[in-house]
Specification:
mainly beta, Tachylectin-2, Chain A
């Protein structure tokens, strides 16, 4: 039996997302830009273990200084990448780009999907069973409501088309626990807050219910990890699991630091994987990792994060579309063209 050992790629590759297409796997992640400013490194693999760098996905936007968390889905014979970019005084906003092939450069298209927000990151497109599309993303909250803390949380909005949100976002989950602390006494928005963070939505359907997984805490610290909330509909309302600290992934002292900002992947045989990053022990890079994912009743489970040899994923003939792939949904190219 073939085995693998995490991490599966030795260079910086954060916020990983994997797409399956024509017998190959393509991985996209937050990484240093190329020498000519191209963003989002692209890797390719036949087996999820041996990864070949094949270039970068996105040409630089005028005035942009940072790019985070790409996710790619198939739409109407093409591929749409959702990501966030920090441009000038407009803050970080959700944007989109298209390509005819998942391994080719993407072309920025349209305007910001979140023009009214100073900070919006970590876009996650999800198609419900009825065919409706939704976009989950993270934004900031500056009020204390019940046990909810000041900081970054996740909302969801219905998508009218590939580039347009309905404009009625619903709260999915806000920070609410001590382990989600990002920074005490953080100076931001003209005030000082004990800032807590929830980000990196990734959605699964299980037994007819919506599970929105998220990463919480400080991405540069040991408290960063993955938990979830549950609802009967993508727009909510969402409830937390009964246990106070239901982290699916958490740091293992001396072994794995800050596992999180994950995505999911389903193989042709039904096996599920969780794809995530974690720091090396010297904190020099966030690295690509994979582990099995499954369910024990209604509870999500994984043996991860792992750092010892594990049985390789049972990859035979990958399906020709990503998990939650859109079908027959035309891309609206009118904006910004």
């Amino acid at each position: 039996m073939t085995h693998y050992t995490n991490p599966v790629f030795s260079e910086y590759f954060a916020d990983p997302y994997i797409l399956q297409h024509d017998g190959l796997f393509y991985a996209y992640g937050t990484a240093p830009a190329s020498s000519d400013g191209m963003q989002f490194r692209v890797l390719r693999s036949p087996d999820l273990i041996a990864w070949e760098p094949i270039g970068w996905a996105l040409p630089p936007l005028p005035g942009a200084t940072s790019y985070w968390a790409p996710e790619v889905v198939a739409r109407d014979g093409r591929f749409v990448m959702y990501y966030s970019a920090g441009v000038g005084d407009s803050g970080h906003q959700i944007r989109a780009a298209i390509s005819d092939h998942p391994g080719a450069p993407f072309r920025p298209i349209g305007d910001s999907l979140t023009p009214d927000l100073a900070f919006a990151i970590d876009a996650h497109p999800f198609q419900d069973a009825d065919g409706t599309w939704y976009l989950y993303y993270a934004r900031d909250f500056l009020t204390l409501d019940g046990d909810e803390r000041v900081g970054t949380g996740i909302v969801v909005d219905r998508m009218i088309d590939a580039l347009t949100l309905a404009g009625m976002p619903q709260i999915v989950v806000r920070p609410h626990a001590d382990w989600q602390l990002f920074q005490a006494g953080r100076a931001i928005y003209g005030a000082v807050y004990d800032w807590h963070t929830i980000e990196g939505a990734a959605v699964r359907m299980h037994n007819g219910r919506i599970y929105c997984f998220y990463s919480g805490g400080a991405w540069e610290r040991d408290n960063y990890g993955v938990s979830y909330v549950v609802a009967d509909h993508p727009l909510g309302s969402y409830t937390r699991p009964p246990q106070d600290d239901a982290r699916l992934l958490r740091s293992v002292p001396g072994r794995v630091r800050g596992p999180g900002h994950h995505s999911f992947l389903t193989l042709e045989n039904g096996d599920e994987l969780i794809v995530y990053h974690a720091w090396d022990e010297a904190m020099t890079a966030r690295l690509l990792r994979i582990d099995p994912f499954g369910w024990r009743g209604d509870q999500p489970v994984t043996p991860g994060p792992t750092w010892t040899p594990q049985p390789a994923p049972r990859v035979h003939a990958p399906v020709n579309a990503p998990v939650n792939a859109p079908v027959n949904a035309p891309v609206n190219e009118k904006q910004g063209e």
